[in-house]
Design a protein that fits this description.
With 224 residues, the protein is α/β, with parallel strands linked by helices. It is built from 8 helices and 8 strands; from the N terminus they run αβββααααααββαβββ. Helix 4 packs across helix 6, helix 5 packs across helix 8 and helix 7 packs antiparallel against helix 8.
C-alpha cells in the first residue's frame, strides 16, 4: 500500500494502472511490475480485487464481448477515480507523509537508538514527532523549531537561549531525573537540534536568574 500511495501522489498525472495477471490476495501493489516507458508514463500492475472486488469482477468476468484494450482503459480510469476518492475521503497528502515518517522511525531508519526512544512515546507524541519531522523537511532546521518540538513532544519544561553563548541552549524540565525521560529528550535532540548547538538539561532545580526572585532561593539553585 505505501508504495502505491507514494507513487500515485508523486506521479498521478503520468501513471497508468493495469490489472495484474499474477497477484497475491494479500497485496494491492505489485512492486516488481512498475516501470517507466519512453513517454515518461509509469506502467504499474496492481491487484484491483484487493479492495474493489465488487467493482472489477463484472469488468473482467462478465464482459467477454468487450475488447481487451477497452477493459484496460476502463480499469485505468476507474483506478484513478478510486485513488482520488481515497485521497479526498481519507488521508490528506500531509497526513500521509506524517505517517510515513512515523513508519520510518518505528522501523529504525533513523537509527536503532532513535527507534528505542520512539517506542517509549505515547501515540500522540509519536504523531507530533512525525509532524515536526515533516515541518523540518519543508522549512529546514532551526532553534525555534527545535524548542517547539521539544516542548510539544516531551510535554514539559522550558527552553532558554543563553545570551552570552547563544549556541548553548538550556532546558529546565521541572521533573525528577529519570533514564526514560533522558532517552526521550536525547531522541528529540538527535532529530531536531541544529548542528553546532548544544543542550544542557536542568531537572528539578532551576538555575539562578539575576532579577528573578523565585529563581534565586538558596538551596534550590543549580549553577552552570
Amino acid at each position: 500500500m505505501d508504495n502505491m500511495w507514494e507513487m500515485y501522489l508523486k506521479s498521478k498525472e503520468n501513471i497508468r494502472f493495469h490489472q495484474a495477471e499474477i497477484f497475491s490476495p494479500y497485496y494491492e501493489q505489485i512492486p516488481v511490475c512498475s516501470k517507466n516507458t519512453l513517454k515518461n508514463t509509469i506502467e504499474t500492475e496492481v491487484n484491483g480485487f484487493y479492495r474493489y472486488e465488487t467493482i472489477f469482477t463484472p469488468l473482467f468476468e462478465n464482459a467477454d464481448g468487450m475488447e481487451a484494450e477497452i477493459k484496460e482503459t476502463l480499469f485505468d480510469v476507474f483506478m484513478h477515480y478510486l485513488m482520488e476518492m481515497d485521497l479526498k475521503s481519507g488521508m490528506t497528502k500531509e497526513e500521509y507523509y506524517i505517517r510515513k515518517e512515523m513508519q520510518q522511525l518505528s522501523q529504525g531508519e533513523y537509527g536503532q537508538e532513535a527507534k528505542k526512544a520512539y517506542l517509549l512515546l505515547t501515540e500522540e507524541q509519536k504523531y507530533l514527532t512525525g509532524r515536526y519531522l515533516l515541518i523540518q523537511e519543508k522549512v529546514g532546521e532551526s532553534v525555534e523549531l527545535f524548542a517547539k518540538a521539544l516542548d510539544h513532544i516531551s510535554g514539559m519544561g522550558v527552553v532558554y537561549k543563553n545570551k552570552v553563548t547563544p549556541e548553548k541552549l538550556l532546558f529546565y524540565t521541572g521533573k525528577e531525573e529519570h533514564s526514560s525521560l533522558k532517552q526521550v529528550i536525547s531522541f528529540i535532540e538527535h532529530l531536531f537540534l541544529p548542528f553546532h548547538y548544544t543542550l544542557r538539561i536542568f531537572w528539578q532545580e532551576h538555575f539562578g536568574v539575576v532579577g528573578k526572585t523565585n529563581t534565586m532561593e538558596l538551596g534550590y539553585i543549580e549553577l552552570f
